[in-house]
UniProtKB/TrEMBL annotation:
UniProt keyword list: DNA recombination, DNA-binding, Plasmid, Transposable element, Transposition
InterPro entries per the UniProt record, alphabetical: Transposase_mutator (IPR001207)
Single annotated GO MF: DNA binding
Statement: the UniProt record of this protein carries the keyword DNA-binding: yes
Signal peptide from the UniProt entry: none
Family: Belongs to the transposase mutator family.
UniProt keyword NAD present: no
Record-linked PANTHER family: TRANSPOSASE FOR INSERTION SEQUENCE ELEMENT IS1081 (PTHR33217)
Protein name listed in UniProt: Mutator family transposase
GO biological process assignments: DNA transposition
One Pfam entry name: Transposase_mut
Described purpose of this protein according to its UniProt entry: Required for the transposition of the insertion element.
Amino acid sequence: MPRAKERGEGKPLQTQDSAWLDSLVDELYSRMAQGEHPGLAFLLEALLNKIMERERARFLASLEGQGEQANGFYPRKLHLTLGQLNLKVPRVRYAKAFRPALLPPKWKRVDKDYEELLIAMLANGYSQAQLQRALASLDLPFSEEALEEAKALIQDRLDFYKSQPLKADWFAVFLDAYWAKLRTEKGKLVDLSLFVAVGIDLEGRKEILGFWILEGRESKGFWVQVFQDLMARGVHRVLLFVTDDFRGLGEVIAKLFPYAEHQLCLLHLERNLRAKLSPSGYKEARETLRRIRHARDKEEGQILFGRLVEGVKGERPGMAWEMEGKRERYLAFLGYPAEVRGYEPSRLDANFDVG
């Protein structure tokens, strides 16, 4: 078996500018601008759509011989704090009373409890009794049989995402993280980290590459396992990784995918600056970041980033030193043509945020 590094080396991946990049940016990057978690939202969206479709099949089977039949889907947007779910809600032709039980009524505001329920089902973090109590408190009429089927479907899909063969070449891989606290049956709070890898292939198609659950926080060893998993399933070359500044990740990408570019989110950097700098220092840094996003090219971006580092150094020399060491990863987006950087002019890195 070849060394892991050899699997990711190859030659630098080339891609042509094409129309699909605009729709790619429109669909995915713009959701990241608000600090959402589009990778996890995309996963939940796919799972909910599948669960609702399965529920319609069960409903139609119960009315077999009565002339009832499927009648397509209608779109519904479900707004969660982790991002927007673009759902395809199944319909039947005659029964007006049919509505997927896991879908909140349109008039009901979706709150954090509903989001926590979805995360718990995803992470298998609740017992059967906890799930039933949560469903009852949310007034979701989900039967025990339907709950068992939904849990089995989720596990089946997650197993698929962990084992499916993958294409060799990818335009971009987004690594999305979501941290949750779930309460066990005994009342203990457990810290969970959920990671989703979403790939964009060379034709602009979006695909879930993998899903990982970790108790506690990530480490370099964890990222080695993640990338060895992706490479074992076929990933060979990636043009661009888009991530938050996860601990140990940059070193692993540089070793296993030395030709790939790695973009860190400027939005996350801006949040850190706001937390660490004085109001006047942050105001100046925010304006410099805005100008970096508007930079004509990488040369201008380099000059502006140097000014940003110098400004931060006066108040936070340690932070400035760390920023300087990650300069190229913060400015990777400036190596792409302007039309690729963002659907809205100069919104690229706000749109890159996966934190």
